[in-house]
Specification:
Elements: H1 2-23, E1 31-36, H2 38-46, H3 49-67, H4 70-92, H5 98-103, H6 108-115, E2 119-122, E3 133-137, H7 139-144, H8 150-160
Parallel strand pairs: 1-2, 1-3
Helix pairs in contact: 2-4, 2-8, 3-4
Length: 176
């Protein structure tokens, strides 16, 4: 499926990029890698940009229903369920945040420069690192790129203290 293909591509990029970064560094210097909690980023995105997207889809769905365009109604309802499932994976578990990060990719170089990191990735995708790496949490800087309100920041703060739900426990039913 698409998510599987995207995950494989992400892993392949990491496999190719990390050795390049490692071998381009002074051997005495720790390599700084920026990590983020994708759940926090998903919440910030979900309460701002995603809401705009969903509200637009709701308006389009209403129009399609009024016009009797059953084909478009079915497409939008399926897409809405897919987005809801994806947001549940991202906001409560460790689902890939690639679609979210793509929406802010032009702002990530400034986050990297500010934190002096060579690479930014989800903390859930770091399975091993040795002492030559220094992991730097850039979650808050990425969250702030979405201009979250105080309530969103409070939710993000609370999520940081929780373990993610195992992804296999995220229901495929968006109404659960």
């Amino acid at each position: 499926m698409k998510m599987h293909t995207i995950s494989i591509r992400i892993v392949m990029i990491f496999i190719l990029l990390i050795p390049l970064i490692i071998f381009s560094q002074d051997s005495n210097e720790k390599i700084r890698i920026g990590t983020f909690d994708s759940r926090c980023v998903a919440i910030a995105y979900g309460r701002t940009d995603f809401l705009k997207l969903i509200n637009g889809m709701r308006a389009e769905l209403k129009t399609a229903k009024e016009e009797g365009n059953e084909e478009r109604v079915a497409e939008l309802e399926k897409l809405g369920s897919t987005y809801q499932f994806l947001m549940h994976q991202q906001g409560f578990s460790t689902g890939s945040a690639k679609n979210i990060m793509d929406s802010i990719k032009d702002k990530l170089p400034s986050v990297a420069e500010k934190n002096k990191v060579k690479l930014i990735l989800s903390k859930w995708e770091v399975f091993y690192n040795d002492d030559s790496l220094e992991l730097v949490d850039v979650t808050d800087e990425i969250v702030n790129l979405f201009n979250p309100d105080e309530q969103s920041l409070e939710i993000v703060k609370n999520i940081k203290g929780m373990d993610p739900v195992p992804i296999e426990q995220i229901s495929t039913d968006p109404h659960e």
